[in-house]
Q: What sequence folds into this?
């Protein structure tokens, strides 16, 4: 915080305090999902895509008044222009948000900020936009944690300090592929951690992670990615499991294989493998194209099949 305030004073720009708070928010949101995976071995017990990123956002920015959300939104857009992992998270998730805006006109995009001239309407729309952005961040964070769970299981030790050290070791393994910013961050973090753990046996976790090659069997990586990414559409538009299954079949390479053959298997897979649970009843679209269908296909870079 002191560094952020010092930079604000030096540059005469309060953005750097916002950037510090944005980093705190996104870091907290990521850690919460990793804790779900590390602390709950069975997927059906995990709480995923249940609004954790929005809750983390409100914990940091909830003090903002209704007429200040525009400032927060502009800071998020500016933060997204930087070259680091957290900025890339914002850029990646503003894409589906923009697709939804084109279909539903519920959210703000960078090219319609003139709504700020209508304060009451702007405040409500900005809040909806930020909350929806957080739901897409939920999906992104969920998928990245899910992939890491299979590819780098050492990063999910029940001990949060060992998880931190494992991440350092994994990053060190790929140090040569990092950009300059990531290298500097790793060097700083490694130095801080080396001092904190210099007398602790936990420090050995860094070396173990550098050389670890063990991963978990991942049977359906493409299917998992599609389902996790489409879950915000199911939530917003009250899709049934059959709606989601019908859309998924148009995207995955094996549409008639398990678990996409039967709705019962499909629903069980969402819960027992991905930790995703639908709440409340819904009504299945008769034509297999529920509301938000176009967003789903654009998000997965697919074209709609001809109507029967």
A:
């Amino acid at each position: 915080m002191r560094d952020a305030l010092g930079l604000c004073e030096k540059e005469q720009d309060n953005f750097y305090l916002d950037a510090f708070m944005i980093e705190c928010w996104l870091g907290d949101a990521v850690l919460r999902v990793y804790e779900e995976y590390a602390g709950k071995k069975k997927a059906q017990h995990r709480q995923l895509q249940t609004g954790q990123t929005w809750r983390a956002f409100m914990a940091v920015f909830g003090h903002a008044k209704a007429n200040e959300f525009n400032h927060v939104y502009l800071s998020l857009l500016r933060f997204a222009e930087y070259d680091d992992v957290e900025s890339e998270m914002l850029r990646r998730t503003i894409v589906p948000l923009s697709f939804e805006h084109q279909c539903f006109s519920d959210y703000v995009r960078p090219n319609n900020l003139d709504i700020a001239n209508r304060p009451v309407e702007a405040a409500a729309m900005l809040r909806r936009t930020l909350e929806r952005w957080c739901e897409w961040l939920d999906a992104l964070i969920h998928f990245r944690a899910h992939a890491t769970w299979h590819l780098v299981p050492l990063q999910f030790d029940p001990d949060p300090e060992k998880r931190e050290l494992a991440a350092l070791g994994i990053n060190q393994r790929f140090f040569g592929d990092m950009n300059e910013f990531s290298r500097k961050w790793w060097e700083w973090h490694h130095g801080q951690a080396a001092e904190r753990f210099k007398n602790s046996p936990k420090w050995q976790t860094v070396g173990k992670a550098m050389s670890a090659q063990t991963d978990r069997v991942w049977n359906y990586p493409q299917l998992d990615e599609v389902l996790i990414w489409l879950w915000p559409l199911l939530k917003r538009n009250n899709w049934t499991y059959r709606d989601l299954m019908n859309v998924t079949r148009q995207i995955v390479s094996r549409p008639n294989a398990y678990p996409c053959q039967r709705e019962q298997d499909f629903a069980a897979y969402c819960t027992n493998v991905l930790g995703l649970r639908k709440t409340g009843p819904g009504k299945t679209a008769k034509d297999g194209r529920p509301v938000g269908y176009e967003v789903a296909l654009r998000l997965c870079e697919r074209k709609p099949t001809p109507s029967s």
Notes: Residues 154-211 form one domain.
